[in-house]
Design goal:
By secondary structure, the chain is mostly helical. Helices cover 66% and strands 0% of the residues.
Length: 253
């Protein structure tokens, strides 16, 4: 295992060592939307000690990470839909209902639950149409690009245009998740919390972790690979879906 260097970006670190993702989450280091920052920059910005942080991150994970192999950019799109989109489609309605229930029962003693419930609604309202745009517009174009031998004539021009919109929407949901964690007190259930309260906060922590990994895969792996592939075709390259996405990238999904 290579030594972690402060000059390496957060995104590169999670690509090579996916087990670092939950550790970054715990430290408040944004490896998805802010993944292009170096570890050193992110640690200093978070007010952490760089030497101590690197030493902690260098400790190997206790559990081996299962492998995920994708067949180029089209395979990664399939994975995103089957894994992260499927998770959100199941989790968001459940978490919205649970947040409303917990706020109704415990809101008098814990008024922050009203804000928590509102933010969960906002996140659902943000993510569901976002996923539809990906599944109905962007991802089909990416699959077309993966099969092409010359640059397709997309109605949006270059795929950089819808990708730019997706990046902006990712930033927005990242801000909502940060507000949610702050409002929920880092998802620590108070002593008078019932089973539903515990289930809500555990579910919200899981939502945050999964969405961070989801956005990381799109921002830092898929989108750069798509832009590179489109540029290669525009320049006359013939082979597109031939390993542009790193094979053997692993995560806990």
């Amino acid at each position: 295992m290579s030594t972690i260097q402060s000059s390496i970006s957060l995104a590169e670190l999670v690509i090579s060592r996916p087990e670092l993702a939950p550790r970054f989450d715990a430290l408040g280091l944004d490896y998805c939307c802010g993944g292009q920052r170096s570890l050193g920059e992110a640690v200093v910005s978070a007010g952490l000690d760089l030497t101590v942080t690197i030493a902690a991150l260098q400790v190997p994970s206790q559990a081996a990470e299962p492998r995920q192999d994708w067949d180029g950019i089209s395979g990664l799109v399939d994975h995103l839909e089957a894994t992260h989109h499927a998770y959100l489609n199941a989790a968001l309605p459940r978490l919205v209902a649970l947040a409303d229930k917990v706020a109704h029962v415990h809101g008098a003693n814990h008024p922050e639950l009203v804000t928590v419930s509102e933010l969960v609604h906002d996140i659902r309202a943000d993510l569901e149409p976002h996923m539809l745009k990906e599944e109905r517009v962007l991802f089909p174009m990416i699959r077309e690009l993966a099969e092409a031998t010359e640059a397709p004539a997309f109605h949006c021009g270059t795929l950089s245009n819808p990708i730019r919109m997706m990046l902006s929407e990712h930033d927005n949901v990242g801000e909502l998740l940060a507000q949610l964690r702050e409002s929920a007190g880092d998802y620590k259930t108070p002593e008078d919390g019932c089973a539903s309260y515990h289930a809500l906060y555990a579910g919200l922590a899981e939502l945050e972790a999964d969405t961070h990994m989801h956005v990381h895969k799109e921002n830092n792996v898929l989108f750069p690979a798509v832009i590179k592939a489109e540029n290669a075709l525009s320049a006359g390259a013939r082979r597109v879906d031939d390993g542009t996405v790193p094979h053997g990238f692993t995560d806990g999904q």
